[in-house]
Design goal:
Helices cover about 35% and strands about 20% of the residues. By secondary structure, the chain is of the alpha/beta class. The strands form 5 sheets. It has a 10-stranded mixed β-sheet, sandwiched between helices. Strands 14, 16, 17 and 18 form a 4-stranded mixed β-sheet that branches. α3 runs parallel beside α5 and α5 packs antiparallel against α6 (about 180-195).
Length: about 425
């Protein structure tokens, strides 16, 4: 029995869905704590591929209670679409609890997101334009609409009308956009509220009762450490907190209850959107990582930027999150490359940097200092133990452990759920 926090140790897209799916087998509660439908988890289950943007991956398991926490921003239309898709396939959805404290993404948030991003010109952040930032801004501004307000439909309709009319002023007078149809929004979203209201509950209470009963709770993070609003590559970050501390805040339980913090990291590095990325490759190796690794965004379909594994980032993620374990994904993608390289430090204006810099402008000028390791050609997709891996692949995993100080306890060698090597934690 344990409270496990599972999070991305890079810039997101690390393959957290598969690891979550694996750990959910033993979890009574699976809880999402941050982000919105700008995130995407892909899970292969019973021969089918599911892409979730809001639902926790545990929704596929009948024994798990699934929670959308207060730290999540919820697009009601997207959430209902995912639920309807599962129902159409005969899968149960009754075990979902939406925290009353979760804020709702409305059409005016999406419109403002697109207008703001367009106004930046060449300085675009690279958002998904799904209204995430404006929704979190409204939350901080104390003007947001929370899920608990869906329990009173008359009140909800009034709040939506007031906020939509206020945001129309911004759209028209600040950004020169056409106003939104307020009555249509009120009608559409009041119907969404009617359907979602029965799922709204006290998520913090559910989680803490499960912990008190000795049940396993799996906290499922979205995005990754380097996209954290406070500790990421600002301003090229998301609007929430994907790090371990965000789980406690976004779900409502105390940090002393956490047993394990697992950071998921690819065997190489990828990133979506703008911002510095020291190990990014613009050559045949980069193309290999993208094509063999199928590096296209779950949410946007955008080609991801790819490069060698950055261990400066992983050491930073270990420190910021208090990682107890790493789960390494897509080790199989490196097959056929020789040598394989890992970034062990940065060079910045003639100086060697061992630690991740605070300023993104500094990171922009950093150049990777690489250590070359031997590659391997053998197909590793059928291996199920560390001992079965080629010696060079074992050495690669060992070097990651040596240079981060964190044990690699899970290694994914293919997209299928059974293509996973599991090792016991050191403690």
């Amino acid at each position: 029995m344990a409270v496990i926090i599972l999070l991305g140790a890079q810039w997101g897209d690390e393959g957290k869905g598969k690891i979550t799916d694996h750990l959910t087998r033993d979890a009574a509660v699976v809880a999402r704590w941050n982000g919105g439908d700008n995130a995407g988890h892909t899970v292969v289950w019973r021969g089918q591929t599911f892409k979730f943007h809001l639902l926790p991956s545990g929704i596929l398991y009948e024994h798990a209670t699934c929670i959308i926490g207060s730290g999540v921003v919820v697009n009601p239309k997207t959430l209902l679409g995912e639920l309807d898709n599962l129902k159409a396939q005969g899968l149960p959805t009754a075990r979902l609890v939406i925290s009353g404290g979760a804020h709702l993404i409305m059409p005016y948030h999406i419109a403002l997101d697109g207008a703001s991003e367009s106004s930046r010109g060449e300085k675009k952040i690279g958002t998904t334009k799904r209204g995430i930032g404006p929704t979190y801004a409204d939350k901080a501004w104390r003007a947001g609409i929370r899920a608990v307000e869906m329990l009173d439909l008359d009140h909800f309709a009034q709040r939506v009308r007031e906020q939509a009319e206020a945001r129309n002023i911004w759209l028209t007078q600040v950004y020169g956009q056409e106003p939104l149809d307020v009555p249509a929004i009120v009608e559409e979203y009041t119907e969404y509220a009617r359907r979602l209201a029965p799922m709204v509950g006290d998520a913090s209470l559910v989680i803490n009762e499960a912990i008190a009963a000795g049940k396993t709770v799996l906290c499922e993070g979205a995005q990754g450490t380097l996209l954290d609003l406070d500790h990421g590559t600002y301003p090229f970050v998301t609007s929430s907190s994907p790090i371990a501390g965000g789980a406690c805040v976004g779900l409502g339980f105390g940090p002393k209850l956490v047993d394990e913090v697992i950071g998921v990291a690819k065997a190489y590095t990828t990133r979506v959107g703008a911002g510095p990325m020291p190990t990014e490759l613009h050559d045949a190796v980069g193309d290999h990582l993208v094509e063999i690794g199928h590096e296209y965004g779950t949410t946007t379909g955008r080609r991801r930027r790819a490069g060698w594994l950055d261990l400066v980032i992983l050491r930073y993620a270990a420190r910021i999150n208090g990682l107890t374990q790493f789960a390494m994904t897509k080790l199989d993608v490196l097959t056929g490359l020789d040598p394989v390289r890992v970034c062990v430090a940065y060079e910045y204006r003639g100086q060697r940097l061992e630690h991740f810099p605070m300023d993104s402008r500094v990171l922009e000028e950093c150049r990777p200092i690489y250590e070359d390791l031997p590659g391997w050609d053998a197909d590793i997709s059928t291996t199920r133990s560390l001992e079965e891996l080629p010696a060079a692949a074992r050495r690669y995993v060992q070097r990651v452990e040596e240079l981060t100080g964190v044990p690699v306890t899970m290694i994914s060698v293919g997209p299928a759920r059974e293509q996973l090597i599991r090792r016991r934690p050191a403690h």
